[in-house]
Amino acid sequence: MLLGNRVIAVLPAYNAESTVARTVAAIARDVVDDILLVDDGSSDHTVEVAKSLGLKVFRHERNLGYGANQKTCYTEALRLGADIVVMLHPDYQYDPRLAPAMAGMIASGVYDTVIASRILGGTARAGGMPLYKYVANRLLTAAQNMLLGSKLSEFHTGYRAFSRKVLESLPLLANSDDFVFDNQMLAQIIGLGYSIGEVSCPTKYFPEASSINFSRSVTYGLGVLGTSVRFRLARWGWIQPNIFSASPKFRLPRAHQHSDLSPRAVAVANQPEAGLAPDHAG
User: Fold this and answer.
1) Range(s) of the domain holding residue 194
2) How many domains is the chain built from?
3) Could you tell me if 172 and 260 are in contact, meaning their C-beta atoms sit under 8 angstroms apart?
4) How far apart are CA 172 and CA 187, in angstroms?
5) Distance in angstroms (rounded) separating the CA atoms of residues 21 and 38
6) 278 within a domain of the structure (yes/no)
7) Phi, psi dihedrals of residue 173, rounded to the nearest 5°
8) In a 3-state reduction of DSSP, which class is residue 202?
9) pLDDT in tens, 60-93
10) What is the pLDDT of residues 182-213, one digit of tens each?
């Protein structure tokens, strides 16, 4: 609990058995009330490790994609009563110790959203970010700031915090189920006029840390540019894409609601001998 706000950390996981324990151990439990992990059809023992750590665990029966994983993360966190949700990759690439600072920037009422930037502080390359990714990050961020009218240091971090108000108002179900989901989400936040704060975050690149390959990176980059162009065209009134729609059908379902647009997830009981709980709409 932080300034009267219930804080929940969500971990979108895929084959993270070797890093999830380190990530969870570094999360400040005196501030973070609950930790929720969504496993996206991993082929390793991510679910078993998460259960042994006492996390609330949800599992997609098959791999649905990074964006679909986050849709489940936010849906279930809101159902658990979160006022602030911190999204952190469980690969230990980002420093979990920053979660209280990020949540505090929202709990104080100063910001609606906070992102942990690998670019602020100039530690990205020192932490092992490949040169081609660093250059792509800088070029894509410059293009997006121009098209979106923003001034963020980067758009591509996997460490973010959101107020409940933000998560309930964005048309997240219209977003991609793939990696560009993150980028579409920031464009939506900017489009609705929510405030975004940034903190400097050191990063670590190592074999167990998740990373997309070069071809997926190219696909992601094209998706990022496409999102920004659609944002600008929508602002000019030339198109009306669903990702910038005001229709409630594209928002996350509220408690006790379900949506045909949501991914399907099952809640995994923490007791090793227990089976799967009834299905939840993620």
Assistant:
1) 7-248
2) 1
3) no
4) 11
5) 14
6) no
7) -70, -15
8) coil
9) 999 999 999 999 999 999 999 999 999 999 999 9
10) 999 999 999 999 999 999 998 877 666 555 67
| Backbone angles phi and psi of 91, in degrees to 5 | -95, 5
CB atoms within 10 A of CB 230: 19
The CATH number assigned to the domain holding 123 equals: 3.90.550.10
Residue appearing with tokens 């006492």? 54
**pLDDT band per the 50, 70, 90 thresholds, residue 267:** confident
For residue 4, which amino acid is it?
A: G
**Distance of alpha carbon 86 from alpha carbon 114, whole angstroms:** 9
Tallying the residues shown for the chain, one arrives at 282
Q: What mean pLDDT is predicted for residues 33-56?
A: 96
Both tokens of 249, joined, read: 């059908």
Using only C-alpha atoms, the chain has a radius of gyration, in whole angstroms, of 18
Q: What is the mean pLDDT of the chain?
A: 90
pLDDT at 275: 34
The order of strands in the sheet holding 276-281 is: 196-200, 113-117, 159-163, 84-88, 7-13, 34-40, 56-60, 264-268, 276-281
